[in-house]
Design brief:
The chain has 4 helices and 2 strands. The protein is mainly α. The protein has a single domain, classed as Winged helix-like DNA-binding domain superfamily/Winged helix DNA-binding domain (Arc Repressor Mutant, subunit A, Orthogonal Bundle), CATH 1.10.10.10. The chain has a two-stranded antiparallel ribbon with strand order 1-2. The longest helix is centred in the N-terminal third of the chain and has 16 residues.
């Protein structure tokens, strides 16, 4: 897929990490382990922040390093 960009790869890796974590929190390192390609930390951070704004992820504080499934992710994960 030629049109895939780094943010797309991060988004996909986050969803995969959430599924693997089965409701437990994930961290940036979990996403990095899933990624096959080199993606800048800044891109991972920005993508995860956008996912938080869109309610796919949550965290207890803006500086927390653990991310939990947000309302949208919980709705989709419960359908699995």
């Amino acid at each position: 897929m030629e049109a895939t960009i780094s943010r797309d790869l991060v988004w996909d890796a986050v969803i995969e990490a959430l599924i693997e974590a089965d409701g437990e929190p994930i961290q940036k390192r979990h996403v990095r382990e899933i990624l096959d390609e080199r993606v800048e930390d800044r891109t991972i951070n920005r993508t995860m922040n956008a996912m938080q704004e869109l309610e796919w992820l949550e965290r207890t504080t803006d500086r927390a390093h653990k991310w939990y499934p947000g309302p949208k992710a919980l709705a989709q994960l419960s359908a699995l």
